[in-house]
Fold this protein.
Amino acid sequence: MQNRVLFGQSYYLRFDAKLWAEQQPYPPLGTLYAAAHLRAFGFEVGLFDAMLASSEQAWAETIDRVRPRFAILYEDNFNYLTKMCLLRMREAAFTMLGMAKARGCTTLVCSSDASDHPEAYLQAGADYVLLGEGEATLAELMTSLRDGGPLTPPDIQSLAFFDETGRLVQSPRRKVLKDLDALPLPAWDLVDIEQYRAVWQQHGRFALNMATSRGCPYHCNWCAKPIWGQRYHARSPEHVVEEIALLTRIARPDYLWFMDDMFGVNPGWIARFADALEAASLKISFKCLNRADLLLRDGDIEALARAGCDIVWMGVESGSQKILDAMDKGTRVEEIIETARRLKQHGIRSGFFLQFGYPGEEEADIRKTFDLVRRCRPDEIGASVTYPLPGTKFYDMVKAQLGTKQNWVDSDDLDMMYQGPFTTDFYRVLHRILHKEHRSQKAIDAWRRLLQSPQRPGRGHARHAAALLYHQTTLPFARLQLRRLARAPHKQSVEALQGALTPEAAATPTPH
């Protein structure tokens, strides 16, 4: 028991109804990195994977079976949902900490939410909170607790704990890791791969997740960065291909999701990645996230196609240049249109992340976003409302309006939480209309392709016809409801925000 460590995380897919229905689970990548790193220091590590677990009780049963000395909730900081700090998952973390403490474990936590609110996690039962990026802090703290000295908790950077008087202590933050190739590959051997495969194969291709970088060097003023700050560091393409080869050998995925905040920021990285895949005779389909302006660099889209990219998701946010500039986004609407065109030209699908409710947004700005979607015809869309997170300019502007609820319960909540341009109900209906329009257009496009081919209609086309009929008959009522909600009495919103940066500065990454 001396060196026995149980890693866990508090994101339970079952607690998020929308995503549970989609059945697209991914192993906790950040947790696997931490487990591999600590194992290199001689610790015996195990994994409790909450992603497909039934409840917190499964965590307690695992502790009873494994009997670890240390219980570590190390959240998957590559998963954007952990940065949103959903209330249901925070409650799960608090429950899990209590269970571990009741069984005599020394407890540690590393997460975006814990970095923002260390005292709350310490009060819930954590002995230590790792602030920001956790691997180096984790190794120093754990070796100190196991061996005694030379470092003690007060000497270790990026750590929060209560001292003997009950006072909260937070040590200075350490710099983030630069040489990501020096980290061991994730501890994939701890994952029940077949459990994930069985879920995915019920509806499609078996997908696994990877990360080629950490952080984002851009300046969107609503985006929180509690783990890596304003820094960006990337693995070498060759190191990434080494992991793809490992996964291909041990897990045989059909598809990969690169979870980076931003894929291939460094000039020439994507081309080198495509070259390394070809040199290793590897070919696998994947999706990634990127910016519209970055993808217009010479050769990047061509290299993505060569590497096997299936779809690129972009943080489009809005079709209104006024809103993009207020967000310090640094992209132009014209760049979004051109990037979508070029992706389609090279056989790569596009996905648009859209955001409504930013201060100063008017009905005219919403119409511009809808017009952009109609013009570009992205293959997939995701829509949300602006979400206030600590540490952002946006949060500072609206925090006086926040009540007791400052986080969504789950990913389908869509509560404004601050006084937005329109009511929460307005944006929930708007979200529904956007998806109905998009699905209707996809059904129409599918039928047009059928008419241009000799293929006979099948079940898939019948589903398209049924979807088109349903959305077209329900859209008028939804639009009528939206017009009524737009006129509903509403408190004055915060005033329109002005971007702190020029568009040129916002489009220039922080040096890294």
Notes: The chain has a mean pLDDT of 93. The two ends are 41 Å apart (CA to CA).
